[in-house]
Amino acid sequence: MIMFNIAQWRAWAPGLTSAEDWSQWSRNPAIACDQGEAPDVSFLPAMQRRRLSRLARMAFAVGWPLAEGREQLPLVFVSRHGETPRTFDILSDLATDQPLSPTQFSLSVHNAVIGLWSILRNETSEMTALAAAGDGLEHGVLEAAALLREGAPAVLLIVAEERPPGAYAPWIDDVPFPYAMGLLLTPGDEWQLGLSTCESKDTAHLRDDWPHALKLIRGLSTQKGALQHHWKNRLWNWLHNR
User: Fold this and answer.
1) What mean pLDDT, rounded, does the chain reach?
2) CA 184, 3, 216: angle at the middle one, nearest 5?
3) DSSP bridge pairs for 11
4) Structural domain boundaries in the chain
5) For domain 8-189, which architecture applies?
6) 182, exposed or middle or buried, with CB in 10 Å at 0-12, 13-18, 19+?
7) Which of 52, 76, 79, 171 could form a disulfide with 56 if both were Cys (CB 3.0 to 4.6 A apart)?
8) Residues 187-203 pLDDT 10s
9) Phi, psi at residue 234, to the nearest 5°?
10) Contact call for residues 165 and 88 (beta carbons, < 8 A)
């Protein structure tokens, strides 16, 4: 069992930009209509914004306000699929014998977002990029909790997923719409996270209706005291100590 506080949180998805938007969505969750819009990152100079993919813009949009006024803030970035649209464009260029863009390639790697974050914020504290399975949120919390235990006064956790190109639809079905969530975690005992496992073959197929980050947003928006997140044979128990 690990313990921590969620000091602040923010989230973004198409049409869901405020706490009130997420509160309404949480009461009646549905797939957000994606028209290709990107979050507002006007706090960055235009030349810097041009390098950011929509995934990076989503991560910056939820993370930047939480990091405001904080120096040397460790960051844990979690994305199962990462910059899939960029890599798909690179593969498409290869398939048609087009010249490859070095910039496009450098920004397609999984730690590109935290690299850009470090540069644009002049941030030199510890940063980690994780590519986990469907319970990547929980693995990110474990990483953040370890940093808190090592003495960090706060850790920023960002979970973001972009909708993969249609060609991946037969294999990727766990991103109902693009979304990003930022959590500012601090030491404390407001939240407890525990893990239980079952080796039964009957649990091998278990998964939740919504990604774990979206389920947590629902819990935070509706002030639920307990949450359970399934992924295969793993059951993550979230408990809010009121």
Assistant:
1) 93
2) 55
3) 181
4) 8-189
5) 3-Layer(aba) Sandwich (3.40)
6) buried
7) 52
8) 999 999 999 987 665 55
9) -110, 135
10) yes
